[in-house]
Amino acid sequence: MGHVCMIILVFLCQTLVYREVTRLFALMDSQPVDYGGKDPWSKTLSWYFFATANYFLYGESIIYYFKVPTLCAVCCSSPHTS
Description:
Blueprint: H1 3-28, H2 41-66, H3 71-77
């Protein structure tokens, strides 16, 4: 397995574990607060937290590993000709 496959495997394992943990917290809530229906933002915010946490933990190092040029790096390193 290459490096890319291992990165994908780790991310997949993290996603599955996070999904199970959020489901366990939903099951443990014995006295749910009545919001006048289903709370549509709780799942969205939890997955948003997961995505942003993974980006800030792994995003920059993965971008550096694959040497993907970012807009800032391209703009700052290119010579300005006027």
